[in-house]
Design brief:
mainly alpha; about 0% strand
């Protein structure tokens, strides 16, 4: 820490968060622009919008699959690499993959580009969580993770709504072009302002993979993969709910997304504080409150005021989980900290694909546009059960000692 002035430390943290901000746009803007993408790339949108929107949702699932595949691969094979150098490599790949998403002409090639763009996502958040914790110093792991994730949540306040407007006015492809530029700027800032901390030659791919023997780790991956899927079941189709269920105009979509972004930002910061206090308690409370929020969404989001209030609380309660689950997965991974951190984001994106897929299936089955809310309740409830199982698997911690 001594080689960093307070100014360089703040700029370094900003640079890490900026990368998360760009990832937030490239991931979540797809959800807000799903109708525009479907209208541009797929036939029969006006004739059978439910079926076409469900098909367009595979873009979300493709990106999520890329994260799931790429997170453990980059974490394992980048084990010996300098964490700063690994972050630079990942930022370069994020920029190229996002630019390709803008340039591909057909639906199939855009799906492939979204998969490629997702590959560096999980490992990036894994490595920047460790870098931010290192920058914050001892005792600040939860707040460091929350700061690293703050770009992701702020993207939902500013970046995603603005990109939705940009996509509606100039075309969805321009959103990906702008985000590719943000990744390039982040790469430059990281290169200039982060210290050249060396890698650890003692680490190896096999040593990282040894974490897979941990039963608590698998339980926590299940929490991330299933429990967080409830939020994505709702978020993936929020644009359609806004227009078709509440009968608001498309101009309201950015405002709904901004409301969710505010909820995510507040929830993430609260989750960081709670995680530094008691991470297991933060995770259990986040899951429990999410079940309540998603149930309320399913019941009351058919009116405009109900949509705004329920969307705020659904996103806020879910965001409490981000630093809590990240910190806990790093903990249960033992020495394989990067692997554990990356697996958390692989889990989040399994949740992304699972939530989008099941939510889309519920809509395609003519259960209504609010049906993904009930899908979310089921997924989050299962995640809570897995969280309690994870605590039972750690005798040294246990349920009583966690609260």
């Amino acid at each position: 820490m001594s080689e960093l002035s307070p100014l360089k430390r703040r700029v370094a943290l900003f640079a890490l968060a900026l990368g998360g901000f760009a990832i937030g746009i490239t991931e979540f803007a797809t959800m807000g622009l799903l109708p525009e993408i479907a209208r541009d790339l797929l036939p029969d949108y006006t004739r059978a919008p439910e079926d076409v929107i469900a098909q367009a949702g595979t873009l979300i699932s493709a990106y999520a699959l890329g994260v799931v595949v790429g997170a453990p691969l980059f974490a394992v094979f980048g084990a010996r690499m300098s964490q700063v150098r690994l972050a630079l490599l990942l930022l370069g790949l994020l920029s190229l993959g996002t630019l390709a998403s803008a340039l591909m002409p057909a639906f199939g090639s855009v799906i492939l580009s979204r998969f490629i763009a997702g590959l560096p996502h999980g490992a990036y958040f894994g490595v920047v969580s460790l870098l931010a914790s290192r920058l914050m110093g001892p005792g600040g792991e939860g707040r460091g993770i929350a700061l690293a994730m703050s770009g992701l949540t702020l993207a939902n306040v500013v970046g995603v709504p603005l990109s939705t407007v940009l996509g509606q006015q100039l075309g969805w492809r321009w959103v990906y072009v702008v985000v590719a530029g943000l990744f390039a700027v982040t790469l430059i800032l990281v290169r200039v302002f982060l210290p050249a901390w060396p890698g650890d030659p003692r680490r190896s791919p096999l040593r990282e993979l040894s974490a897979l023997r941990s039963a608590p780790l698998w339980a926590m991956v299940g929490v991330s993969s299933i429990g967080f899927g409830g939020f994505f079941a709702v978020y993936s189709y929020i644009a359609e709910v806004t227009v078709r269920e509440t009968a608001l105009s498309a101009d309201a979509i950015p405002w709904v997304l901004a409301t969710m972004g505010v909820g995510m930002t507040i929830g993430n910061l609260l989750g960081g504080v709670l995680t530094d206090w008691r991470p297991a308690a933060a995770a259990v409370w986040g899951l429990s409150l999410s079940i309540v929020a998603l149930t309320s969404y399913s019941l009351f989001a058919q009116t405009a005021i109900g949509l705004y209030i329920c969307a705020f609380f659904a996103s806020g309660t879910s965001a409490i989980l981000m630093p809590a689950l990240q910190s806990r997965l790093i903990r249960v991974a033992g020495e394989a900290r990067l692997f554990g951190a990356a697996l958390n984001h692989a889990g989040f994106n399994i949740a992304n694909g699972l939530g989008a897929g099941l939510g889309g299936a519920a809509i395609a089955a003519d259960w209504g546009y609010l049906a993904p809310g009930w899908v979310g309740v089921a997924l989050t409830s299962f995640g809570l059960v897995l969280m309690l199982i994870s605590l039972r698997l750690e005798p040294q911690e246990g349920l009583r000692g966690s609260f």
